[in-house]
Amino acid sequence: MSDNKDKVINLFKKTPKEGDTARQRFFKGFQYVKITKDENGNYFKEEALREYAQKCFFIVTVMKHNGIGVGLYKYKVPYESLLNFFNQFRNNKSYGEIIDIERYVPEDLA
């Protein structure tokens, strides 16, 4: 939903280098990219990543039908509740269609 695409990097666009085997990686039918270092070249620390995740929220936009047509509902979902939130739709306990998911990082996390 964000129009700011200045810093968007397509991680899945393979630019093969000479001698590189253009092997794509998949897990259960989903393409993925493995990242082991941060932007400064440091290896990730497991505990630091967990602490960071616990402080993040996700803004999940859901399209729902109402009396006039459709409306967009934005939910602020904490990290630890994200799978439970998705399961509400998967198990038909809530109606609507998930349209967008954005990560919300509080400003004091730098």
Q: Rounded to an integer, what's the Rg over CA atoms? A: 18 Å
Sequence of secondary-structure elements: EEHEEHE
Helix segment tally: 2
Please give the number of β-strands: 5
**Spatial strand order of the main sheet:** 4-3-5
Largest sheet: 3 strands, antiparallel
Structure class: alpha+beta
Residue share in β-strands: 25-35%
Shape: extended
Helix content: 10-25%
Low-confidence segments: 18-22
Distance between the termini: 23 Å
Task: Describe the fold and architecture.
With 110 residues, this protein is an alpha+beta fold. The protein has 2 helices and 5 strands, in the order E-E-H-E-E-H-E. The protein has helices at residues 46-55, 82-90; strands at 26-27, 30-31, 57-65, 70-78, 97-104. The strands form 2 sheets. A 3-stranded antiparallel β-sheet has the order 4-3-5. Strands 1-2 form a two-stranded antiparallel sheet. Mean pLDDT is 81; it is low at 18-22.
Short description:
The protein is an alpha+beta fold. The chain is built from two helices and five strands. About 5% of the residues have low confidence.
Question: Topology of this protein?
Answer:
Blueprint: E1 26-27, E2 30-31, H1 46-55, E3 57-65, E4 70-78, H2 82-90, E5 97-104
Antiparallel strand pairs: 1-2, 3-4, 3-5
Give the key terms.
two-stranded antiparallel sheet, alpha+beta, 3-stranded antiparallel beta sheet, extended, 5 strands
